[in-house]
Every structure is written in C-alpha cells, then in structure tokens.
Specification:
The structure is a homodimer.
Chain A lengths: L2 H8 L3 H8 L8 H14 L5 H8 L4 E6 L5 H16 L3 E6 L4 H13 L4 E4 L10 H5 L3 E5 L12 E5 L1 H15 L4 E4 L6 H16 L8 E3 L11 H15 L7 E4 L2 H13 L9 E3 L16 E3 L2 H16 L8 E5 L2 E3 L9
Parallel strand pairs in A: 1-2, 1-3, 3-4, 4-5, 5-11, 6-7, 6-8, 8-9
Antiparallel strand pairs in A: 10-12
The structure holds a DNA duplex.
Pfam families (chains A, B): LacI, Peripla_BP_3
Keywords (chains A, B): DNA-binding, Transcription, Transcription regulation
InterPro entries (chains A, B): Cro/C1-type_HTH, HTH_LacI, LacI/GalR-like_sensor, Lambda_DNA-bd_dom_sf, Peripla_BP_I
Chain lengths: 346, 346
DNA sequence: CTGAAAGCGCTAACAC
DNA sequence: GTGTTAGCGCTTTCAG
C-alpha cells in the first residue's frame, strides 16, 4: 500500500497525494481532493513512517525516560504526558532507567538513533553532561522533576515542583503540630530534587527554631545503593526500624516521597507504633495510594497533570521551531494535603 | 554520519560495512574488519533505523499495550518485559489504552504503521476482532492476562495466570477460615479474565457447600462504566459502602485485583470496621503495595517476571521465524499469599 | 573477499 | 493545480 498506488487509484501523481497528506490541501481542486480521499479510504492506505522519517528527518514521537514505572508517580506522569501528546498526534516512547545513569544515557542515545528529537528526561543526575553531545546536535530536552543547574545546556527546559518549598511545607506542618524531634528519610541524596527536599526540611526546622543538627537524616548508612523506587518502600521500612532503635526516636518523619513514606509507616507498624498517633509521617507526590492507605497519608501534592501538559507543550513548540530556543525553568507550586498520618505529638 | 562515510574512512565499500553491521563478518579479512570497526568508532557512527527499516521492513521494537500504567501491576509488567527485551537488543513501546477499546485498536494500528511487527496486548476485550486484519497481514500478537478464546486468531499466543484457580484459592482460603457470607467485588465483568475470576469465586463457594446465590457480587449497579484501573480503588471503596449497608454484610470479600482490594479496605475503614478482624479481604496480583498496606493484604500472586519473560520469548521467536507459527496458551500457576487482611470471622 | 547498483516509500523543489 | 524528479541511508543481489 504505497502513495503511488493511491495516486494511481485517484488518477493523480504521488506528489499531489503527498501534498494532501501534509496539509497543503489549498493547493488543489476540491474534487481532486475528494478523489484522493476516497482512494485513501478505499485502499486503507497509511503512510509509511520509516520512509517519511528517512525523507524529512522528523517524526512525531517523543521519548519519556522515567526512573521507575514501578512507582505509580511515574506511571501517572506517563499517563498524563501521553494524553497530552496523543491529542496532538504525537506518540510517547516510554523508557525506564531504573535510576541507572548508564541506562539513562543509553536510552537517550537509542531514542536519538531512532530519530526521536524530543525527550522528557526525569533524570536523577545532578549533571546532564552525558547527554550534552546529543543536545548539541539538536536534541530537545525537557528535564522533569529536576530544576536547572549551572552547567546545564542553555536550551534546556526544566519542569519541576518547588521541592524545597514542598518539603518545607511538610516540615512546617509537623512543627506547627508541635513536633520537635524530626527525621528526614531518604535514600542517597544523589539527585537535585532530593537535595532540595532536604534543604526544605532543614529550612523548616530552622524556621521553627530547631537546630537541624539535633534532627536525624536516616538511613545514615547505605547511601550509595539505595536509590531505587520500588526499593524506596523497603528503604523506608528499614529506616523506620533504625529510627525506632534510637534513644529518643523522632515523633515526626518527613519522607522523600510517598512510596518511601508508605514503607516508613509499615516499619513503624512493625515496631508496634501507630502512625498518626504515636508518630506522624508526611510523604511527597500524592500518589493515588496516599488516600487509600491506612491511615491516609499527609503529603505534598505535585500538580502532575499541569506539569505533564507543560512538558509536552514546551517540547512540542521547540520541535516545531515555533517556540523559544532559550532554556527556561518552570517551577510549580506544591500543595500540602493534610490527612490522617499526622497529628500532634502525644 | 552515514554508512558511506564510514566506508570511505575505512577505504572499503558501503556493502562491506553493511555486511559487518549485519553479522556477516566471516565474509571479510580480519584486517578489513578491524579497519571498519575503527572507522565506526572514530566517527561515532550509528546506523539510521528509519533507513534500515525502510529497506528491510523489520525493526527491533515491540509494542506493549496495557490497560493502565496507573496501576502498579502494569508498571511491573512493563519493567519486566522491558528488561527481557533490552537484554536482546529490543525496545519496548509502551501504550496505555485506559481500557478504551478504540484507543486499544488505534494503538495497535499505529504500532503497525510504525513498522512494529510484534505486540504484547493486555486486552480487556473478549474478542480480538478489532486487530484481526493486522494479524492476517502478519502482526504477531501475544495476549497477556487473557486466555485464548474460540474466535481468536490461530497464531495467537496467550499468556495468563490461571485466573479461575487463583480466585478459587482466594475464596477457599476464606471458606477454610470459616467465612460463609462472601462477596465478590469487581467492576464490569467485561473482560475474559474477570469472568474467570468470578467463575473461580463461585467454584470456591460451591466447593464449600455454599450456594453462590446467597453471596453477593458488588457493586450491583454501574457495571458499564466502572472498568478503569485507577478507578478500581474508588470502585472498591464505593462497593464496600454498599456492602456494609446490607442487612447481613459479608464477612469475607474477594476483590478483582489489589487496587480494588485496597479501595475495599479503605471503604470498610470508612464504615468503622477493621480489616483482618471484622472483615477479611483478599486481593489479586500481589503488587508491591500489598505488603506495605495496613493491614498487609492477603492476595493471589501472579508470577509476573516469568510471565513477562515468556511473553518476550514467544514474541521474539515468532518475529525471527524461528518459533512455531501455531498459537499456544501458557497458563501460569497463581499462588495464594496469606497476610494480615484475612482471619477467621468473629 | 569486496564493490556496484538498484530501490524500499516518501517529500519537496522545481517544472509545466 | 499538478506532475517530474532526485534523493534520504540502508541492504542485498549479483559481478568481479
């Protein structure tokens, strides 16, 4: 089923069919157009993308590289980005880096080799050097959940929630409730957003007149290898056990994200404590499960839908050349969602 | 960066480079080979996939169409399938149908138009008629989580857990504990696997000498529109409310999947009941969260990793022409995982 | 063992 | 308005 056959069927030349296919339909008689459309329908013709791409160097696929589809947060991003893309006739190629820098780079390379010119990269890495060569050759990059850094490519778009504010809100919520002994639970602070969340935590403490030095960041050990997402829950659980073993366990815990928070809750329960009573826990992300859990989880919501839509819009306008070529940062406002997992200390 | 430039650099012809690229390297002197490899490295050459595909009609991408990446169960499938594919140099293009039959068909069409010849389809639909035209043209299809049906294409591979046995195990577990008033909570029984799970439920009841007519399938209303996955939890929650309003509420509940079960637990809690004490709940899938929830969720585990690996292996061998062309069904054995959400009735 | 040549399906100048 | 033409980068006979 080629454009040639359609042309023959419609009694026109391939280029006329091509013109129609590419929206240059003012260039032909309405009746010609009709004939071509009928031929297309009759033959069930679909343009061959490989040929089209070979010719134009363009395509309508964008890449999405996420740390882990095992975490519903990233699943939600995928859904929303896909919806936005689909509505404009774009496709999304989803890649799962498992927070492995090599895999991340390999995927971006692969995407580029596949002719994908726009990628939404949810990178855990502080530096984007590993993808710079491609950016220099024209790859359009949107960094998601990672604010701009000094060494970033000039054309980079960054889309992120304000992580520092988010976890400061979380922390402040706990101090407002009267908690004084707080802990921050995370894996390695190996990514930009994690560092910022930690910064928000300490800022929140200081604001409440608590010396950050007296608070705990757990787990203290194992910072190097505990960076996963599915593992986030296991990590939270283990961290909770560690915290409970302290002389003066914290009464309030800020977790790096909801999966981790859920693990923390599990760990506290292992230790015989009741979350939302003996200990308060705050998460980050507001995944669907936060509202299902027992107790329901107080957390910091990221406006995912808006962020995903922005990511697509930015990418699209740059792929079109219709947008600015200058980089920019979009920082979204996080929102504290208070539920049952937090309460005044007993 | 074309094959021509590599050829020039290495002082050979493009076809020799192509031969090397395609594993026909016995056809050349070792030193020629060396020269070419050096040239490739030096120039950082990567074959253009579009061109290659245009020429050969083949590619190394497989499609995965899932009902919803918002459900961690499908996220887990994506991860495992991707791992298996990656190890063999294949890519996975993930598509999210949101259980919309039209979207499902459109995606399969799109994939085919993109030159994808193999698709893992997690279809909710009893009939695969909508993709038959493509199968007739050579699309290799693996149906996941959907057992073979009478009208299916002869070449179809089906990979699924034995759903009937799974939910029979779940039901039996409840009856063994002494429960006599049971309910089955699901959205519309619109898919093959859901029907089977329901069948397993009734089989389990009969085996325990309970008349299925006295048990409840909830929700009774709204069967048409409540077929989603993220919504599964909301549905479970609403269903629980309905059940509690009955004169004699069930003491044991079998849910269609874990997300739904989590919603049920939430709904029971809304009603002031304690799961694993006042009421027992069993899920299906064994998502990561089943073991995090409070109480931890008794559920039926699907051997996801093995199933995903099988899906890829089957697809691959058929794309290679190295496998059988006959269809086949692979039914995996589910496993009951007993946790805290089930206990004898009080 | 290596090279020359044809063409996959499409698009975009450029003619007419 | 519509057709002609020249490739995009690659693979694969078929010659040498």
């Amino acid at each position: 089923m080629t454009i040639q056959q359609v042309a023959t069927e419609a009694g026109v030349s391939p280029s006329t069919v091509s013109n129609l296919l590419n929206g240059r339909n003012h260039r032909m008689l309405p009746e010609t157009r009709q004939r071509i459309e009928r031929a297309i329908d009759k033959l069930g013709y679909r343009p061959n993308r490989a040929a089209r791409q070979l010719r134009t160097g363009r395509n309508t696929t964008i890449g999405l590289v996420v740390p882990s589809v095992g975490n519903p947060f990233w699943g939600a991003l995928a859904r929303h980005l896909e919806s936005a893309a689909l509505a404009e006739g774009y496709h999304v190629l989803l890649c799962n880096s498992e927070r492995d820098p090599r895999r991340e780079r390999d995927y971006v390379d692969e995407l580029w080799a596949d002719g994908v010119h726009g990628v939404v990269l949810c990178s855990s890495l502080p530096s984007l050097d590993h993808v710079m060569p491609l950016v220099e050759r024209g790859l359009q990059l949107v960094a998601f959940d990672r604010t701009s850094q000094a060494g970033d490519p000039a054309s980079l778009v960054s889309i992120s929630v304000d992580n520092a504010i988010g976890s400061q809100l979380a922390t402040q919520h706990l101090t407002d409730l009267g908690h004084r002994r707080l802990a921050f639970v995370s894996g390695a602070l190996a990514s930009v957003n994690r560092k910022e969340r930690y910064r928000g935590f300490t800022a929140g403490l200081e604001q409440a007149g608590i010396d950050p030095a007296t608070s705990v960041r757990a787990p203290v050990k194992g910072d190097a290898d505990d960076f996963g997402d599915v593992e986030a829950s296991e990590l939270g659980r283990a961290a909770a056990a560690e915290l409970l073993a302290l002389e003066e366990p914290p009464t309030g815990i800020v977790a790096i994200n909801d999966m981790c928070a859920l693990g923390v809750c599990r760990g506290l329960r292992d230790g015989g404590l009741e979350v939302g009573k003996d200990v308060s826990v705050v998460g980050f992300d507001d995944i669907v499960l936060a509202d299902l859990y027992a107790p329901t989880l107080t957390t910091v919501r990221q406006p995912m839908k808006e962020m995903a839509a922005a990511a697509f819009t930015q990418l699209r306008s740059r792929l079109d050349d219709s947008g600015p070529t200058q980089g920019q940062s979009l920082l979204f406002r996080p929102e504290l969602i208070v539920r049952e997992s937090t309460a005044p200390p007993t």
